[in-house]
Amino acid sequence: MDEQKEKKVALAAGGTGGHLFPALALAEEIISQPGFGRVVFLAAERPLDRHILGGADRLWGRQFKCVYLPGSAYAGQPGWRKLLSILYMAWAVLSAWFHLRGCRAVVAFGGYASVASVLAARLRGIAVYLHEQNAIPGRANRLMARFAKHIFLTFEEAAPLFGPRADRCRVVGCPVRKKILFEREAGPHARMRMLVVGGSQGTKFFLDFFLGRPEFFAWLLERVDILFLAGSQLAETPPARRLVENARHLRGSFTLLPFLDRMGPAVRSADIILSRSGASFLAELASVGKARTILVPFPLAMDGHQDANAKALQRSGHSLAELRVIDETQQAEMEETIHGFVVGGPVPPPPSFSDRHAGAANEILSELHSN
Fold it and tell me: What would the pLDDT profile of 282-296 be if each residue is shown by its tens digit?
């Protein structure tokens, strides 16, 4: 194996932060290790991918090369659109094949970019590894599992769902970025803090929840500082602007942002967290969170994986003061639970945080070393 091939690893992910952030955590670990040091990141040609990965391009320079593959998801496209999407997939495979030159392995995290990258890796004879973040595997990983040497899992519940490839599965956790693990919160705070993580699949529900309960929202804001992360698509919508305007006339601090680069301190300092249950954020929450937490699984998530993620976290252990999983239809129960969390007062830091996900990137890297 030549020197160039030994030092390059390709990572494939795209479409959602749930795929991109764990892949970035692994990229960070690879770049810091002797014997590797170079990463080719194959992502989807989408605004979210460019927004998240642009900072990595600037941070790591020549050690990190990001390639945006053309096309869009092919599943469910009717008629001529299906033919067009197949042609785009062929173009994406060709592009990935070109950029995989000299790579010793591909680690795919799911999504459209992963399918094209794994197919290109097979054409080049490059070893393929998968990482599945969710308790129910996504379609891309299920489809590509036949080509994988190993399948790394966040939750052990996912293994049987890979069928005859279950023996290739290994539970390592979900890679978490170092700045999440090691950034410290600003210090003691006089008022309780609430973090609402909406993102692309949760913001509308949480906005509607607070807008539909103006008296409860006023009561809450008198007692709790709220940071609402709404995602780039919905942060500037009329409902978001309306909630911000409502908060201006109330006592307390309400901040609505599309994203937050420094998530570690926000998660660490929160006394209450209200969130969907995407696997990447749950790994960050389990690693550094202390809060009383309500998870509201996105009901339209593929194959119900968010509901499975939330229940798997309940079973697997965490350092959270309290964890409740509440269905979207149980809004009265959600209001009552938030009320109880506020009355319960601030949450002190736990004696120690869970290290279940902190070593995930290292475990994957040790397997790549042996390839």
Answer: 988 888 888 999 999
Nearest to 143 by CA among 110, 121, 172, 171: 110
Residue 345, CB half-sphere, CA atoms under 13 Å: how many?
Answer: 2
Q: Which domain holds residue 100?
A: 3-173+357-369
User: 């062929």: which residue's tokens?
Assistant: 90
| Statement to judge: residues 58 and 156 lie in one domain | yes
Distances (CA, A) of 194 to 103, 208, 255, 284, 338: 44, 17, 11, 16, 10
**CA 124 and chain centroid, separation:** 29
Q: Is 206 helix (H, G, I), strand (E, B) or coil?
A: helix
Contact 162, 169 (CB under 8 A): yes
Name the domain count of the chain: 2
Q: Which stretches of the chain are DSSP H helices?
A: 3-6, 17-32, 47-60, 79-99, 112-124, 139-144, 178-182, 203-211, 214-223, 238-248, 263-269, 279-288, 305-316, 331-343, 360-369
The model's pTM is: 0.84
Is 201:279 a contact under the CB 8 Å cutoff?
Answer: no
Q: Does one domain contain both 209 and 288?
A: yes
